[in-house]
Amino acid sequence: MSIFTPTNQIRLTNVAVVRMKKGGKRFEIACYKNKVMSWRTGAEKDLDEVLQTHSVFMNVSKGQTAKKDDLVKAFGTEDQTEICKQILAKGELQVSDKERQSQLETMFRDIATTVADKCVNPDTKRPYPVSLIERAMKDIHYSVKPNKSAKQQALEVIGQTISRPHEAAAGAAGQGGQASEGEAEAAPAGGGERGLRRGAGNG
């Protein structure tokens, strides 16, 4: 079926577009929403679950595919699947402000949940509430990085909150949390214990 048929054009309107400028021209690929970041963080391995089509476009919304000569000149190959991989890895994801904010909020919660899974309160030997982790993240003004996985960023959060145990505890307590100085000196559920305890000792 031709990509220019009305049916395909309708199917390709509800997509996440990844764009790359190369060789003086703009190239785009059509992806499924919410799959681009999964691919970039390694959560999704199946390219067919990410790409709506293995075609490279000049303009996805208009259904204008790229010419082979332009692809070869810009990428050194006419293999569109390989070019799609390059654009997927290095291109700019086009999303609306509302979608971007929603994605950041979802990742913020995922990071907090991961931190809660990895750390326990050394006093009670129980995991910290996710809400307490979220407050601590806000206290240190943690900025979510869309191109990093939640797990990678969770480790960053652990390092930053443990390096400032007194402030993290005071901030959480001031917002109605039950954090004490001991709570801020989190002990991980597994791995990295030495680093966390050393960081807490510096507080």
UniProtKB/TrEMBL annotation:
Protein location: Cytoplasm; Nucleus
Main location: cytoplasm
Biased composition (Gly residues): 189-203
GO BP field: cytosolic ribosome assembly
UniProt keyword annotations, A-Z: Cytoplasm, Nucleus, Ribosome biogenesis
Boundaries of every Ribosome maturation protein SDO1/SBDS N-terminal domain copy: 14-101
InterPro entries the record matches: Ribosome_mat_SBDS_CS, Ribosome_mat_SBDS_N_sf, Sdo1/SBDS, Sdo1/SBDS-like, SDO1/SBDS_central, Sdo1/SBDS_central_sf, SDO1/SBDS_N
Pfam families tied to this protein: SBDS_domain_II, SBDS_N
Subunit structure: Associates with the 60S ribosomal subunit.
PANTHER family: RIBOSOME MATURATION PROTEIN SBDS (PTHR10927)
Family statement: Belongs to the SDO1/SBDS family.
Record protein name field: Ribosome maturation protein SBDS
